[in-house]
Structure prediction request, 74 residues.
Amino acid sequence: MARASKFTDEQRLEIALDMLSGKMSVSEVCRKWDIGTTYAYKLKDRAVELLRAGIGKPVGKTYRRSRTVAKEDC
Prediction:
């Protein structure tokens, strides 16, 4: 039988947003929510995966904009 979650979906989202915002350190987020760093990073990673899926970018791939170097005529 699955264990009931300590946090609601909204709270998990708020934890992930705290992690992604960078306004607090990981330690501060963990103290605020009374969670371990592993769980905090797991929530952040899940949120990033959902965001990427929502905008149609594959998970695990990073996209770099190609730079074009303008050649000067001499």
The mean pLDDT is 83. DSSP finds three helices and no strands in the chain. Residues 31 and 37 are 10 Å apart (CA to CA).
